Amino acid sequence: MSTSAGSAGAGELKRHLGVFDAVVIGLGAMIGAGIFAALAPAASAAGSGLLLSLAVAAVVAYCNATSSARLAARYPKSGGTYVYGRERLGDFWGYLAGWGFVVGKTASCAAMALTVGAYAWPGQAHAVAVAAVVALTAVNYVGVQKSAWLTRGIVAVVLAVLAAVVTACLTGGTAESARLDLGADATFGGVLRAAGLLFFAFAGYARVATLGEEVRDPARTIPRAIPLALGITLAVYAAVALAVLSVLGPDGLAGAAAPLDAAVRAAGVPGLVPVVRVGAAVAALGSLLALILGVSRTTLAMARDRHLPHALAAVHPRFEVPHRAELAVGAVVAVLAATVDVRGAIGFSSFGVLAYYAVANASAWTLTPAEGRPARFVPVVGMAGCLGLAFALPADSVLWGTVVLALGAAAYGLRKAASRR
Question: pLDDT (tens digit, 9 = 90+) per residue, 33-56?
Fold first, then answer.
């Protein structure tokens, strides 16, 4: 097994975050990304089986979260599964996990930035997206505590908006719940495909693990924070999905460009539409903030081991953050947000993240009871679920995801070959 020798002298991060802050960061990553972005394409794939797909995604996410929590408590360093795969399976598997995470989540960052622009100022979506990236990169630069404080406010706003949507849908208008007949038109493949897309919405708990070096008492904090964040998110998603289905029905939800907007209109409360739009923009900001945090910390870990330029491993002496990694990630995301529309990258991102968690589950399988190994079924179900959902995604997502992972593997092989000369 390789070690993190490359990290010597690179600087260590300070442990500022407790259970509450870690849970809030996980919530900010999950709720913002999923509920406004993934419901409609998932409904298109699963039809009335949407809630079943949500349950499948939640089971896989639970297994991944449990494996990740046990590993994060054992290895409380920045980098998440990049570190776990390296320490438990070998250098290549850690690298491949880190590569899939950084590439997939960089695309997700741009997608969330463009979501901010689309809701806040549709006519200038790209300009607003770039401004959002610059602003949140600056917030992250001045310290993770300030990021956690901002995320608290974002999560509070989003939860309030979603509560208003659920209340409006369940108490007003022309509810269609009497004819829903959940699951009647669902197919096995469609349910799995939708579960893969909805997994994108649960992936935020990785942010807690990738911040492992900045969490107080990680052996206690991380195993508590990850399941709490996941459980709260599942409850919120289930309530919103059921409420929106009750007024739009599966076909209406699948065809809605802005499902929550359409739902409150159908419920007879059009006055809530501006509130929903603000909530969507704020939620996407929360996701973007947490995504930049997670990608920059994995970049830091890979740079420490020289899988990425070692200069990115620097930690700011005053703000105690990986400032060069944050600036590099921010710059790449800003360029993407300015030039391309990546809101269709949910499937691509899900493929990369599912590959990442497959490595996490394989790593958890190697833990001993003394190291806090989870029940044996957890990594088995988690790894099988990750692989199954990954290859059930739309064909173009599978193709591009496979190509990107293969390119990463080729780059690793070339670097290793060059180092032997």
Answer: 567 777 888 888 898 899 999 999
Q: Dihedral of the CA atoms 210, 131, 404, 30 (nearest 10)?
A: 40
Cβ partners under 8 Å of residue 52, min gap 6:
46, 182, 183, 186, 191
Question: 19-37 and 259-266 helices cross at what angle (nearest 10)?
Answer: 70
For 90, the token pair is: 């070998």
* Residue 358 Cα to chain centre, angstroms: 15
The pTM of the full predicted model, rounded to 2 decimals, is 0.78
Distance (Å) of CA 146 to CA 11, 79, 126, 149, 318 = 20, 20, 26, 5, 14
CB 120 within 8 A of CB 128: yes
Within 10 angstroms of residue 372's Cβ, the number of other Cβ atoms is 15
Phi, psi of 270 (to 5 degrees): -65, -20
State how far Cα 66 lies from the chain centre: 16
CB 101 within 8 A of CB 297: no
Query: pLDDT tens, 244-292?
Result: 998 998 888 888 877 888 899 999 999 999 998 888 888 888 778 878 8
Among 53, 379, 69, 399, CA closest to 227: 69
